[in-house]
Amino acid sequence: QKEVEQDPGPLSVPEGAIVSLNCTYSNSAFQYFMWYRQYSRKGPELLMYTYSSGNKEDGRFTAQVDKSSKYISLFIRDSQPSDSATYLCAMSAQQAGTALIFGKGTTLSVSS
Amino acid sequence: GAVVSQHPSWVICKSGTSVKIECRSLDFQATTMFWYRQFPKQSLMLMATSNEGSKATYEQGVEKDKFLINHASLTLSTLTVTSAHPEDSSFYICSARVLDPPAGDTQYFGPGTRLTVL
After folding, report:
1. CB within 8 A of B35, min separation 6: which ones?
2. What is the pLDDT of residues A5-37, one digit of tens each?
């Protein structure tokens, strides 16, 4: 079993839809959880950062962490064509001075 | 927010030559930088962790004599791919550790360097 599992998609939604992206993990020691957005041929861009369990909201984006289920989610409200990208979850057991473990990424396409 | 740059953004070289990629933190000092490699439709694979003033720590399976990493200052890390071969063609991305809020303790990534070895 891989440490981090993420459905690669692709996921296609119409503009304005609510998007739900998810990752599961096996290492109960993970405490730091991140979501990155990566456009084609670009480096990943940090979207959300969460420590331990709970929810975090930033504009149209909401990140949720459920450590009991080893499950994290990213919700995108009112999705826009500009949200079309690959979304990578990442996590680590310690502070980011150690390596992040990435999911494979989910490719999202939002059509206008 | 924290900005990380990479140079060059793309490079094409002949087999057997060496290529140097620079990673710079533009508005902050980074004691720790990371080098990743990404193949098409694959996730990022960590190659090595670079700490300023000390030797890099390489992940299992990564040849340290082939991928030379130097972190000589708090704002610059370099990756040199020595005697490059076509199988080294990939997207190389660096990241820098950031300790300041609002991101807390996390990593910011550079835009990546696409290496093509002919």
Report:
1. B23, B46, B47, B48, B50, B67, B69, B77, B79, B92, B93, B94
2. 998 889 999 999 999 999 999 999 898 899 999
